[in-house]
Specification:
Phosphorylase Kinase, domain 1; alpha/beta; about 475 residues; 3 domains; four-stranded parallel sheet; Aminoglycoside 3'-phosphotransferase, Chain: A, domain 2; globular
Length: about 475
């Protein structure tokens, strides 16, 4: 008998529909041991699932029935046989929220339609957590009835053994374990009386008949609201900009506040620590599924997750002191090899243009080549000293006009363009792949941003190179 359950599923389909299936096509299941198939006869299609874990199947079927009774958007279960580890469920198609976000050639990277879909996703999440979780019998949840200390410890050990060990990030084991205890102690102070979906991310949200449906909630259990919100908003390869993440977080707080008693200040006190826990669990998955099992799309998520980690830490001090973990996180962020994981480079020369604040230190060279230029923009007039410009950045029209008309600024830019142009021609002649040019100022918001934008625009007029532009301090702004 087929080890993936195909014969069993064909029999179950015949029992359910009264006729044999005409076609049975396997569907990718990412990192799961579960096997999924699209089973069809004529225009009728269903999804058949085989999973040797009986307890997980029972949890999924029970949760599906519970959510369906509450009118929550989950696939309908048509037939199941727990003893044979199989079930048939509604076919929701192949379009996920992630596929909509990552579709090439769509209009605008984050169109209003996509922003609206994320708002709807968060509204759906709040209903799962609060409405669906309100009268749920958590005793049937698997592998534990609650996302408790033990669950958190599993996630942190997953991060330690399947990521840190595999990528050779050094750490002191006892100090790291002490920080794990401190973090767990802090997180368990949060309100944990709602349904925790566990894997509420863009790949697990199906777009079907103008509605978002949730799938893969079999690991759900009782827990805190913050975890699932972070799962969606910090989803690595969806790579939402921070301004949108913050806007969507505010939207969620409003929606959830209408469904339950929720104090935004209290929620936010625990949000970033829960987000970091979720991110560490994700790093564990990228290490195990990607670096250990060789699944390339997990490896490709590592640089995106590092950017998310850097952005989270840039938002200020945490509510809990974690010295050993903080040191590990900084080593991860500073690892050039991790930033290049899964990288598929285009041939030719890439010029990396950056802006930064000297208060936060020089930017790191992610290419591993060293060299390049660092230009000090603090010798230029500072718009930040004027109240009319202080709240703006070097990308705003008022600041652009203020700096653009100054003769010292124009001479500065001409000199930098000449120097960089000479280096570009040299690097192209030697078939070098990378050149880094960084502009620094006091706050990393006005002069450095303006100069980086101008140089990037100048270089993009050339057809023989690529330009990568990054504003370090702006990336952490709401």
């Amino acid at each position: 008998m087929a080890a993936d359950g195909t014969i069993r599923l064909q029999e179950l389909y015949r029992q359910w529909s009264g006729e044999p299936a005409e076609e049975m096509v396997p569907i990718s299941a990412d990192g799961s041991v579960r096997r999924y198939f699209r089973i069809s006869r004529g225009e009728l299609t269903v999804i058949g699932a085989f999973n040797p874990d009986r307890k997980e199947n029972r949890a999924f079927l029970n949760l599906s029935a519970h959510f369906h009774r509450h009118g929550l958007p989950v696939p309908e279960i048509y037939a199941s046989d727990l003893d044979r580890h199989i079930y048939l469920q509604q076919d929701l198609g192949d379009v996920t929220l992630y596929s909509l976000v990552s579709t090439p050639g769509r209009e605008g990277k984050f169109s209003e339609r996509l922003v609206d879909l994320y708002r709807r996703a968060l509204e759906t999440l709040a209903r799962f957590q609060i409405v669906g979780g309100g009268d749920l019998d958590y005793s049937g949840c698997y592998p534990r009835p609650a996302f408790d200390r033990q669950s958190m410890r599993w996630d942190l050990n997953y991060f330690k053994y399947h990521f840190l060990k595999l990528v050779d990030i050094p750490f002191e084991e006892q100090a790291l374990e002490a920080d794990f205890d401190t973090l767990i102690d802090f997180l368990t102070e949060a309100d944990s009386n709602h349904f925790l979906y566990r894997d509420f991310q863009s790949r697990n949200l199906m777009w079907h008949r103008e509605r978002l449906y949730g799938i893969d909630y079999q690991g759900g259990r009782k827990g805190a609201l913050q975890y699932d919100v972070a799962s969606l908003l910090l989803d690595a390869k969806a790579d939402l900009p921070w301004w949108l993440r913050n806007q969507l977080l505010d939207h969620y707080l409003g929606v959830a506040g209408n469904l339950t008693s929720l104090q935004p200040e209290t929620f936010l006190r625990f949000y970033r620590p829960y987000a970091l826990l979720r991110l560490m669990q994700a790093f564990g998955a990228y290490g195990y599924r990607g670096l250990h099992q060789g699944k390339s799309h997990f490896v490709a998520s590592i640089p995106y997750a590092l950017g998310t980690l850097e952005g989270l830490l840039a938002q200020g001090a945490l509510q809990v002191r974690l010295p050993a973990l903080s040191e590990v996180w900084q080593r991860m962020i500073g690892s050039d090899s991790l930033h290049r994981k899964g990288e598929k480079r285009k041939p030719g020369l890439t010029v990396h243009v950056k802006s930064f604040s000297y208060k936060q230190g020089l930017p790191r060279d992610r290419t591993g080549h060293g060299g390049g230029f660092v230009f000090d923009c603090r010798i230029l007039p500072n718009p930040g000293r004027h109240s009319a410009y202080a709240h703006l950045t070097g990308k705003d029209g008022e600041v652009i006009r203020y700096l653009g008309k100054d003769e010292d600024v124009q001479r500065f830019l001409q000199h930098t363009e000449d120097l960089v142009g000479q280096a570009v021609n040299h690097h192209l002649g030697r078939n070098f792949t990378d050149l880094t040019v960084a502009f620094g100022c006091t706050g990393g918001r006005h002069r450095s941003v303006f100069c980086a934008e101008r140089l990037a625009a100048h270089l993009r007029s050339r057809k023989d190179l690529q330009v990568d532009l990054h504003h370090r301090e702006l990336a952490a702004l709401p």
